[in-house]
Amino acid sequence: MKNILVIGSGGREHALAWKLIQSQHTQKVYVAPGNAGTECEENIVNVDIKSDDIDGLLEFSEAESIDLVVVGPEAPLVAGIVDVFTAAGISIFGPKQYNAQLEGSKTFAKQFMQQYNIPTAEYATFTEPKSALNYLSKKSLPIVIKADGLAAGKGVVIAHSADEAQYAVMTILSGDAHGDAGKKIIIEEFIQGEEVSFICVVDHDTIIPLASSQDHKARDAGDLGPNTGGMGAYSPSPLVDQAMHEKIMQQIIIPTVNGFMDAGHPYQGFLYAGIMITPEGEPKVLEFNCRLGDPETQPIMLRLNDDLSEICYQVANHQLLARQLRWSPQSALGVVLASGGYPYEYNKGDKISGLDHVHAPHAKIFHAGTVRIGNDIKTSGGRVLCVTALGNDVKQAQKNAYAEVKRISWNNMFYRQDIGYRAIKD
Quick one: 337 and 415 in the same domain? Predict the structure, then answer.
């Protein structure tokens, strides 16, 4: 497995490429299209092909004799990239198009969970406003409104007032907010509790859980403000002890994997369950993703002491054997540095200062929305960097990460100052 292609351009893909190149089996990692961070890594090469250009990616993989393709983002998976590459005889890590509906359609996911008795929130599906508003009028607040399709992690509104709920229904269904992704919506009950990310590597009926993690989706301190793609994350989650781990596996992960086997579509790739743990200690699925989370990937990869390229290759070739992965006993925490105005309108092209300082050995800066122009690295997205660090516990990892954050600046840089607060008990 000499040459690997990672598809995507975000912080998740930088972290994946960074971990994949550490394998003794890997000579070169290509990233399509990558970012300034991947461009600056040794033996990692950016390729100017967009992540949704399946034909271009296939042509490149065949020309460069790529041994393994690892798909980062959800859109190519939902579009069926794994089916295309598999038919062409190229080893590719990720679920096929049928399985990727678990993320690509909230309605598919809800019906799947209902069929296989996987605990989740009560819900209803709508395609036009009148019946949706009528349903809303009979429900208590807060209530959750979701675009059915892919919305880059921003298609969820938690409405605390009737006006807010009605506005969310109208703007999503009109297509103004998320285009085609909002042609259908889910309205579901709001579940109280604390959310955790539970991610596994799956190959048919072989399941290897990754380290647990928690992310902060809300933009503002105290988990307030609009939902984003994620403002920071930490691993492990103190909520997932051995008993909770076993409960999640038995009630959610194993039934999901067995459900796909039962349907004649075995699952291969990362399976991500966003789970709310209720005050009574019961796990309920908020959403499924068919890839790694961003920014959870960054602290998880910082803690992984195993050969990721070997694992991905085995899954892609249906050779995965059940085993325990090796993890750093330390905690890891990542703080997302964003452009002011995110997740709405924000500026691009601002020069980033402080990236050339000497960084601590326990820290790593993963790039997301960055581009290299000459000798400068500039912003090119809403979430720009994820500053990640290890520590003996979450509190120390938090201290180490924020010490690195203070070295970095650009015009109108924004970040939360309380990432990890739920896990820190003073």
Answer: yes
Note whether residue 107 is domain-resident.
no
Write out the DSSP string of 127-182. Answer: SSHHHHHHHHTTSPSSEEEEESS--TT--EEEESSHHHHHHHHHHHHTTTTTGGGG
Among 146, 163, 189, identify where a domain stops: 189
Residue 400 in any domain: the answer is yes
Are 175 and 67 found together in one domain?
no
Structure tokens at 360: 């601590």
Q: Examine residue 42 and state whether it is found in any structural domain, yes or no.
A: yes
Alpha helices by DSSP H, 249-296: 254-262
Query: Would you give the distance in Å from CA 217 to the centre of its chain?
Result: 11
Distance CA 190, CA 196 (A): 16
Domain that holds residue 226: 194-316
Per-residue pLDDT of the chain (426 residues; tens, 9 = 90+): 699 999 999 999 999 999 999 999 999 999 999 999 999 999 999 999 999 999 999 999 999 999 999 999 999 999 999 999 999 999 999 999 999 999 998 889 999 999 999 999 988 888 888 888 888 888 888 998 888 877 665 578 888 988 888 888 888 887 665 666 557 888 999 999 999 999 999 999 999 999 999 999 999 999 999 888 899 999 999 999 999 999 999 999 999 999 999 999 999 999 999 999 999 999 999 999 999 999 999 999 999 999 999 999 999 999 999 999 999 999 999 999 999 999 999 999 999 999 988 678 899 999 999 999 999 999 999 999 999 999 999 999 999 999 999 999 999 999 999 999 999 975
H or E element that contains 109: helix 106-115
Does the residue 60 lie in any domain?
Answer: yes
Please indicate, yes or no, whether residues 174 and 198 belong to a single structural domain of this protein.
no
Residues 230 and 302 grouped into a single domain: yes
In this prediction the pTM is 0.93
